[in-house]
Amino acid sequence: MFSKTCEYALRALIYIAQQSKNDSRVGIKDISKNINSPEYFIAKILQDLSRKGFVQSAKGPNGGFYMDQKNLNMSIADIVREVDGDKLFSGCGLGLEQCSETHPCPLHDQFKSIRDNLRQMLENSKIQMFVDNLDLQLTYLKR
Known about the structure:
Elements: H1 4-19, H2 28-35, H3 39-51, E1 56-58, E2 64-66, H4 69-72, H5 76-84, H6 87-90, H7 108-124, H8 127-135
Antiparallel strand pairs: 1-2
């Protein structure tokens, strides 16, 4: 459903948020190890997300990535849109460019409701929610 880049971005941001408690910062090696991602790939993704304000970074011996309260209130949909674009929320189920209300594909009506439910779920899913569930051990990022 998501691109590999988006999957890594989501996992990394949730992990960073969880580790950001008490003003902690987390490095690339730690992130990579704990979300099962290639180090160079996650570094590139986080560098881009940092420039765009989805995560903060600090250089130096006590440096690393961290999140503030604003970031914790981001929706998963915001991250998906930034990394993968809006296609998941507006695209055709068959990938047709001309699919619309007036010119629907065979899956249009069914896919539209699924797509709308998915958008709503991801809009209502905030980073903080995932951190809370991880802390309660209701969910996990790595097994």
